[in-house]
């Protein structure tokens, strides 16, 4: 696919996304446009009323007539004040719901069971916060622009009624400002995109630094970690400066053009007044209108840069939400199949680095799997969890190809616990009970089995901090294991679940795990002798595939080297 084709496809996706977001609350958007327009109309009438008042006072005079025009002026100020107040409220609602719509869309895509939208949490956060807010803010810009454009047209009509020359001058100035802003809009799209991209990278670097702060301190790598974050952060600052500089240049040019335009209009109006072609009251109104219309003209000119920012952020959001799924949901997703309490899992024709194909099956009880190929455990986890579908491997659940099962059914029957288990803000019990509704007794049993029942003074009330910051690496691993055990899934796959705990704790966990999972199907991918010793059966996936108990396989040199510590 050519670059032009990709850009065309992105454009076709970004436009509907922008349209859907800004129209998330159409009633509020229309209300904001109307009320902002009423505010701008009131602002435009101020110089007109003042000019008429001055003309009447100089011409016919009279306190009663003057008082009447002043009352009308006061009423106009009440109108424009209330219009702005309630218009701003409607605009804020339109902006908030536009951003909210995008955040929901990002959340749904990121959590979609078919995958394919995997991003670092910091990158997702930037897209769901800064990018969504930028697109949301564009809804408010639309309301301001519509009202400002209407105000410019009203001002032009009023000026044309007083002087055709002045009206045409204002109209020409508006066109000139809009053209100048449009010329730089394309460059601002690229600059805004670069700014948000580098901001996301800086957030990811900060997240990595904070999550690994203990390890970083432990190995004395503080300076290297800070240097990495500093580099990303400086890149973000540079991109922000470039974008801000471009917009500042546009603003400066707009201000210069507006000043030149007002100078020309004032000169033309003064010349007309000197010749008697323009009464003094109309001159005051005309100059007041010209001075007023500078603000709406700048708002109209600011539309293009705002659209550029919104478009750049919308492109980043669309790139995430339109990402192709990693796996395809089964066509018969509504089908229901019954599975036993301890199903059999089969893996067939899975290629390893050596090019050989691995095939095996795991039945009820606890089975250990030892991989000679260091990349195989991660590949097995991805395949068993259906995070991706490999062309060279198949997984069967009680003889049924898992690709024919609905993902929610598969993941309810077979729970795959990768090596890294996230810990969330909350308590020990809240984290352990995330995957189960079986009650406190099941959670307590799982916590005990993972030797995680005394991590905090009060498991039900003591907060763990963000991402379990108050726990050590071993404690977080034990709590993650407890969460998996509490689910009591018919099939449980564990990848190196005890690498961060000491030998004594590992032995305790192994014994309790054996008792808790004796009536289920459990696969433990590990090289831990303590865990392998309690397995009913051990598979060694190496140059030759061997099968037996841990004690029997220790007589094999390759296996012994793989599990030696």
Structure characterization notes:
With 565 residues, the protein is an alpha/beta fold. It is built from 18 helices and 10 strands. It has helices at 3-22, 26-58, 63-110, 121-162, 164-211, 213-218, 222-274, 280-301, 303-321, 376-384, 407-413, 428-432, 440-449, 473-486, 503-516, 529-533, 550-553, 557-563, and strands at residues 345-351, 357-362, 365-371, 394-397, 400-401, 414-417, 491-495, 521-525, 537-541, 545-548. Strands 6-7-8-3-9-10 form a 6-stranded mixed beta sheet, with helices on both faces. A 4-stranded antiparallel beta sheet has the order 2-1-4-5, with no helix packed on it. Helix 1 (3-22) crosses helix 3 (63-110) and helix 3 packs antiparallel against helix 4 (121-162). The longest helix has 53 residues, at 222-274. The model is unreliable at 1-7 (pLDDT under 50).
From the structure above, extract its key features.
565 residues; alpha/beta; 18 helices
Topology:
Layout: H1 3-22, H2 26-58, H3 63-110, H4 121-162, H5 164-211, H6 213-218, H7 222-274, H8 280-301, H9 303-321, E1 345-351, E2 357-362, E3 365-371, H10 376-384, E4 394-397, E5 400-401, H11 407-413, E6 414-417, H12 428-432, H13 440-449, H14 473-486, E7 491-495, H15 503-516, E8 521-525, H16 529-533, E9 537-541, E10 545-548, H17 550-553, H18 557-563
